[in-house]
Amino acid sequence: MTTTAMNPGRLDGRLVLPGEAGYDEARTVWNAMVDRRPRMVVRCASVGDVVAAVRTARELDLELGVRCGGHSALGLAVPDDGLMVDLRPMGGVRVDPVRRRAWVQGGALLGALDREAQRYGLATTAGNVSHTGVGGLTLGGGMGWLARQYGLACDNVASFTMVTADGDVVHASPTENPDLFWGLRGGGGNFGIVTEFEFRLHPVGTRALVAEYTFPLDRALPAFRHWRDLNAEAPRQATFTASLGGDGQVVLGFVWVGDPAEARKLLPAMRGLGRTVATRVHEPSYVELQRQDDTTGRHALRRYSKGHYLRRLPDEAIEAFLLRGSTGSGEGLPNAGLQAYGGAISDVPDDETAFSHRGTVFEFGCGTGWTDPAEDAARKASARRCAAALAPFASGVYVNALSDDGAEGVRRAYSPDKLARLTTLKTAYDPHNVFHLNHNIRPAR
Ligand SMILES: Cc1cc2nc3c(=O)[nH]c(=O)nc-3n(C[C@H](O)[C@H](O)[C@H](O)COP(=O)(O)OP(=O)(O)OC[C@H]3O[C@@H](n4cnc5c(N)ncnc54)[C@H](O)[C@@H]3O)c2cc1C
């Protein structure tokens, strides 16, 4: 196939058509419920390839999807009968340890960023599963174990290089296209395809500590209240976590990045949570910490999840969390979790980035993974019930935690003034909504 915009022989990467080697691998994403068939996949290996792919999609009037890590719960990267830009060949990371900077290509996974930066004891905020894409995570905000110390992933971006809907290459930084720089920090993939992120790195060392205290459901409430109160005083190195899984047991604790000896000073207070059925304190390296959820978060399961941001965690919210929208035994209920925000996330002035809800105290999420399509409806319904039970306490939602929430979800993810500003930016950069396979900011007509 040759179009005006793309001659496959001239690509640095490769055009992959249905039936060809690599086609099924490229269209297979994290959520196994996603089974869509692009008309073509462009495995981009250079900025020039991305430009050619965007221009081709427009010339042929094809829907355009952008794949980095493939973790979008809806599989937004994969357009049915459209053109899929597969950025994974652009997965490189270059670190300057003296300037403490990393230049990360648009298709890189978090694991590559962690690995390269950790060679020098450096890191920047990245998510909790190493096979998540830097692209989608950072453009939506980017929460991780370093965020309370150094801000979200997007707060650590010094500049972006982006291909626009017209196929132009632009830069965004505090001094170049500052409006776009604002929007790319939280506005998702709405404005173009980012081919490079320049990140600030921090000297975090290589060590971490994870503390987990397990309680039976019937003894969890007082422990949970105490844990919530300790969170309010916690040092920024600590990110408090709570989870409730299939075994019906509640695990309360924290993750610490930095000197474990400092972390251990928190343990006497944690022992005050009460009598546990199990206690686990371990000291992974930072890179091990960043991979410890890779298996539970693995590819190839059918998935459904929901989330909320919470500004407060009153006792009633804890009770709702423990019930997970059920009055029954707990069988078939989704996993539920909380992760603390605060610290450096809330230091950033609210109007500095498109990312909203910096006053969040906890992020709530519930989700489930399964293999049998016959379970689809029941699994989704249980996650929806669980999220509905926490909805009265919600103050918004993380755009990267949205699933099938549609336009209403986008309205919950951004404050009204930010949504208005994002709409103006979208109208300027992508008036025809070429980039609409995302949590979409619609251009003004
Ligand atoms: C197992 C798992 C763990 C997670 N853990 C965390 C976590 O700890 N912290 C957190 O904040 N989030 C987390 N998330 C949510 C995650 O941030 C979002 O799912 C995000 O969209 C994933 O990005 P991706 O590149 O992997 O996904 P993709 O499906 O490849 O991309 C999603 C969308 O992002 C856009 N996009 C991606 N790359 C680019 C690019 N280079 N330029 C322009 N647009 C682009 C496109 O619109 C695309 O449709 C997790 C998700 C999963 C499934």
TrEMBL record:
Keywords linked to the UniProt accession: FAD, Flavoprotein, Oxidoreductase
Protein family membership: Belongs to the oxygen-dependent FAD-linked oxidoreductase family.
Stored PROSITE patterns: FAD_PCMH
Signal peptide: none
InterPro entries reported in the protein's UniProt record: BBE, FAD-bd_PCMH, FAD-bd_PCMH-like_sf, FAD-bd_PCMH_sub1, FAD-bd_PCMH_sub2, FAD-linked_Oxidoreductase, Oxid_FAD_bind_N
Domain FAD-binding PCMH-type: residue ranges: 34-204
Keyword Oxidoreductase tagged: yes
Identification of the protein by name: FAD/FMN-containing dehydrogenase
PANTHER family linked to this entry: BINDING OXIDOREDUCTASE, PUTATIVE (AFU_ORTHOLOGUE AFUA_1G17690)-RELATED, FAD-BINDING PCMH-TYPE DOMAIN-CONTAINING PROTEIN
Cofactor: FAD
